Amino acid sequence: MILQKQAIRLSSSYSAESILSPENRSKCLKCLQSVPMPKTKPNRLQPEASVLVPVCIDDKGETSILYTRRSGLLSRHVHQISFPGGIKDPEDASFEDCALRETEEEIGLPRSRVEIWGSGPMLKPPNAASIMPVYATIRNLNLNELKLNKVEVESAFTIPISELASPNNFRYTQFKQSYSGPVFIVGDKRIWGITGIMTHNFLQCLLPKEESSKRPIIKYIRPYRAK
Known about the structure:
This protein is of the alpha+beta class and 227 residues long. It is 27% helix and 27% strand. Strand 1 (48-57) and strand 2 form a beta hairpin.
């Protein structure tokens, strides 16, 4: 009986009713403006990009996040897990428009299925495009409705937020001559790099305080260098 009550309480902590209310979404967006970011020196000549960070809601009100695995046909970051998105085109009216266009091109999800509720702040990794995360909700997603562009995307899948929020699935990595960053390992899925940073910061701000406080805080510290 006690375990059943704990399971119900845990499930409700990550339900759409709990974390996607207008008040909590507003709080999340405000929080994201002040989360720590890696201290890097971005290349101003790099382009700008946008990705969609989609929270999926099933018919029971439970939440998950939609990810893609990059195709082996690409020239960079092959087979790595990412969010749908890409470089902002001159024809894109906004970063939100870019994220919707790229999502439809990559996984065949019409923009009419996506409810955008916020964006930012911009991430500026070194030697790569600056990335604007766009936060959205997708209701009753059936993965079978997606039409993957196999040149860009190998697969698409969702991971329950309850799994991403579990300290048991959290690690960190130290990049060579760069910053430390969060890593999520759920089953055979490994989420790291910029996608790991965006996931970590998003959950820190989206989840209830009593849940986010259980998760480790990653300090973006550059390694010691001998003089």
